[in-house]
Amino acid sequence: MLDAAVKALSQILSPPMRTILWRSIGLALVLITVLAIGLQRLLSWFADYGEGWAEAMLGPGFHTSLHILSWIISIAAGLGVVLGGIFLMPAVTSLVASVFVDDVADHVEREHYPAERPGDALPLGVAIPEGIKTALLTILVYLIALPFVLFAGAGFLIFFIATAWLLGREYFELAAMRFRPPAEAKAMRKDNAATVFTAGLFIAAFVSIPIVNLATPLFGMAFMVHMHKRLSGPRPELIEPARKTGMPVV
């Protein structure tokens, strides 16, 4: 598993991957920016609306105090959007990964498994819904875990474990679905749940590093291509020619 992680890390910086890297970073930044602007405007609207409602309830004598409070809340909301963008990075990378899954997998398979049958490209109608489902599930889990952040960092541990499970699950299934029907890919993931979760810990650690985490779609996908290959067992397309020629299987 560590060897697979090292191979994935080394390949995401290779010349053939750089174009995909810049495209994925660009898409991630666009999604984060849109999300941040939307949240900031929504929170600012709530602050302004709350100020008007409170002034109507308490009277004009509280106008200055309420205006200062609204200003403080707006600043806190802005900081909250920044922190929210950090916590929502796994959700963003899930969407980005669903767009570039085949580009990354093709490079990994050509470089490390040239003698094997390449995987079939996933239709966007299959890959993108998987990314959207993972992103929405990530947001839901994070909202549930958010209250626990106040309890001695328990929330951060929940975030990390949830990220490992969610991203490990998505990236492995995307890699497996290039060779198997979706139902079979999901069944394979369940049969190897402990291994996939452990591999997901590597991806969770990667996505927790600011700036570097923009490359998570490439690292996660490349890593899980290796993991799927290893969990798939013997490859018939390599074994059969060896049997016919009498040569030992490597």
From TrEMBL:
Keyword Nucleotide-binding annotated: no
Major localization listed first in the record, in broad terms: membrane
The keyword Transmembrane helix is assigned to this record: yes
UniProt-annotated location(s): Membrane
Record InterPro entries: CysZ/EI24
Topology term for the membrane: Multi-pass membrane protein
Transmembrane segments: 20-39, 68-88, 139-167, 196-225
Swiss-Prot/TrEMBL keywords: Membrane, Transmembrane, Transmembrane helix
Signal peptide annotation: none
Protein's recorded name: Sulfate transporter family protein
